[in-house]
Amino acid sequence: MRLIHFLSCALASVLLLGLIGLPGEIITSAGGAAQPWRPAGRGTPPIDVVGRVSAASTVVGDVAVAGRWELTGDSLSGERIGDGATVWTYRNAWGDDLVGHPALDDRRLAAVWRDGRVTSIDVTDGRVVWQTDIPPGPGHEANRAYDEEWGAAWEITVARHGSVPVLVILHEGRLDVLDGRTGAIRWSYPPASTGTCQAPGSARGVGEVVLVFGNCANPGPQPEVALSAADGRPLWRFDGGELWHARDLGDGRLASVDEKGRLNVRAAGDGKIVWQTTLPRRDDSPAGEEMGVAAGLLTVRTRTEVSAYRIADGGLAWRRAMKDAWSDTVLTDGTHTYVAEDAGTLLKLDARTGHLVDRHRFESDISPSWMRDGLAGISVLHGDDVVVG
């Protein structure tokens, strides 16, 4: 009799779970996103504000994804930029703090939780593509206690192997690199525990390499190394912080600015400089990640000018004098280029010539943030970010 009662309860539980899903992890769909998004004003010469998103959002296609803290656990929510409607909500009550949710490609992102769970989500409908768990690193306990030796911060970036995105996660004294298609761990660094000095202090995925920065307590050169994003092979070593904000240029090249204000373009395979040029006012030289890259041009904004260089040979394509602005970030898709003319004014330029297309004045200070599929995200101080076309 007890066996029959137990089996009945088990069957009822299975049926209930089948109806409501596993507790603690729920995806609520509220309607599909409009793909592709073609807002009025997109592609026209004037700068038009076509949508608004929260400052902490990751934008993929027509959907802005933002994390939210809840008593039952952190959640992610996708909202259409066009009308602000919620497309889906992902709740993970069994999970820990959400530490990041970078875009993997033009359709998927990866949500990373502090307990090691990683979930790839199709942003168009909130569908889970894959899930995996990364094992704790050597500094796990110290990390949980917010010990300053290891730090509580996770660093999450995206590199690539050919056309395949790879998710680069630095956590608790170890680096795990996941295949963006399946979630499988491709490689880890260091591959085995070899002492405190081998633990990476910081890491960034930049194109087809992963740059690892040292964490040695002892003074002197740090074990900084560029690793292959495909398999973790050491490619070349470097010293100093020049590559901290390196930018992927495609075609196996990286761009960075050194302490002397020189723009250096180097081969990603061996680290050798292919060409370099000196930028004006080296004390205000931009970081590599602030540069615009598209259509064979590297566009750089300094305090006094914006210049476009040919990635192939470093030749100057065009140059335009600029006013002083607090943001050096350049956004470009190869057709149009967006830069801040001053603290509150956005310029839209012809990416091939530098000629002015339009100028738009905002009520607060602005900073260009991202550009995809012909649309640009502009961070606005004291308000929601805006999307312009």
What is this structure's SSE topology?
Elements: H1 2-20, E1 25-29, E2 49-53, E3 58-60, E4 63-68, E5 75-80, E6 86-92, E7 98-100, E8 108-113, E9 117-122, E10 127-133, H2 140-144, E11 155-161, E12 164-171, E13 174-179, E14 185-189, E15 202-206, E16 209-213, E17 225-228, E18 234-237, E19 247-250, E20 253-257, E21 262-267, E22 273-278, E23 292-294, E24 297-301, E25 305-310, E26 316-321, E27 331-332, E28 336-342, E29 345-350, E30 356-361, E31 366-372, E32 375-380, E33 385-388
Describe, in short, the structure shown.
The protein is mainly β and 389 residues long.
Name of the level-1 CATH class of the domain at 260-388: Mainly Beta
Radius of gyration: 23 Å
Largest sheet: 5 strands, antiparallel
Nearest-integer average pLDDT: 83
Give the CATH topology of the domain at 260-388. Answer: Methylamine Dehydrogenase, Chain H
Q: What class would the helix/strand composition place it in?
A: mainly beta
Distance between the termini: 69 Å
Low-confidence stretches: 10-23, 147-151
- Helix coverage percent of residues? under 10%
H/I helix tally: 2
* Biggest sheet: strand arrangement: 1-6-5-4-3
The CATH architecture classification of the domain at 260-388 is 7 Propeller
* Name of the CATH homologous superfamily of the domain at 260-388: YVTN repeat-like/Quinoprotein amine dehydrogenase
Strand content: over 45%
- The backbone outline, from C-alpha atoms, is globular
Per DSSP E runs of 2 or more residues, the count of β-strands stands at: 33
